[in-house]
Amino acid sequence: MVASKSATFFVAGGAGFIGSGFVALLLETLPAATVVNFDALTYAGNLDNLQGLNQERHKFIRGDITDRSSVLDALTDATDVVVNFAAESHVDRSILSANEFIETNVLGAQVLLDCARERKVRRFVQISTDEVMGSLPEDTDTFFTEESHFRPNSPYAASKAAAEHLVRAAHHTFGLDTVITRCGNNYGPRQFPEKFLPLMIANALNDEPIPIYGDGLNVRDWIHVDDHCRAILKVVEAGRSDTTYNIGARNERRNIEVATSVLDQLGKPHSLLKFVKDRPGHDRRYAINPTLIETELGWKPQETWESGLRKTIDWYLGNPRWVDRARSGDYRQFYAQQYGIEVGAN
Ligand SMILES: NC(=O)c1ccc[n+]([C@@H]2O[C@H](COP(=O)([O-])OP(=O)(O)OC[C@H]3O[C@@H](n4cnc5c(N)ncnc54)[C@H](O)[C@@H]3O)[C@@H](O)[C@H]2O)c1
What we know:
Layout: E1 8-12, H1 17-29, E2 34-39, E3 58-62, H2 68-74, E4 81-84, H3 91-96, H4 99-118, E5 123-129, H5 155-174, E6 178-183, E7 185-187, H6 196-205, E8 210-213, E9 219-224, H7 225-238, E10 243-247, E11 252-254, H8 255-266, E12 273-276, H9 291-297, H10 305-318, H11 320-326, H12 330-339
Parallel strand pairs: 1-2, 1-4, 2-3, 4-5, 5-6, 6-10, 7-9, 8-12
Antiparallel strand pairs: 9-11
The chain binds nicotinamide-adenine-dinucleotide (NAD).
């Protein structure tokens, strides 16, 4: 087991949606673990996500993973595990401008790998995405496996695929202990409101139109963020070095089906759906075969789609202040540019 209960973790991107959930899980389940949370606080990073965490075992450092000296300062020889969540993570933004994606997702990953090696960390875990494998045919029984070829179709996916190659190279060239995880679409609390599910919930609550790309029939494989975090912890602790693990909850849903489930649960009319021009290069279907992590590491999702969606909607209903704060500023400008709809306008 690589991470003992008292391990020292360096989590990059731990103020974002998934990273903050993982930091909370570490502090809850490993009672003597300490966490350095290193995050640049881009538009997607949110210190509100870290409220209530154990202050003695959690240290937040604002820093950029492309800045080698800051990373080296924050990493110590006592660091056992680096987990890299830090990324530009929104496909639509990568279509508007790819540069930030190359800088953080590719160059930043290489800086982290170099620094991890210099500090002799025991394990490096790269959080990747099913999107590196491209799009699957519709209505078939084909699934992504760990052996699927790289076929990234967006600048975001291409940058994440590039990072995976660098991780592999760090293992084979320098002997760094590395593991990669590839997950599907996460949903749950604390997700930045530009993403599909929180955008729908927030808009439905405000009786604002809900933009649906194209015909709405694109399929995504949804997983609750807590199940994803528990899977990553399994991989940290017991994953085989130089191995990639697909993480999925066998929960394929068409976008239109997700949208109508949200509207139904909130008691809102389907007339709020507004079909908009499709995203360029929009992948049609993602579907993950998680057999390897299930059989080798004994991981299984705990949430069903129904329980996870209910909890997620309840969280957004119970945290209006979080939503209001996240929906202001940069998000407002991006939203108007992307969909041609002003936040707050019906
Ligand atoms: N959200 C999903 O559905 C999903 C699915 C599969 C994989 N992933 C991967 O999981 C990771 C986390 O995704 P998320 O949805 O939590 O993203 P997010 O956008 O919510 O969070 C990303 C975090 O990284 C930080 N960050 C960005 N650039 C940085 C830099 N240069 N240096 C330091 N920190 C920086 C941001 O401030 C933010 O806190 C990403 O690597 C993403 O590719 C996400």
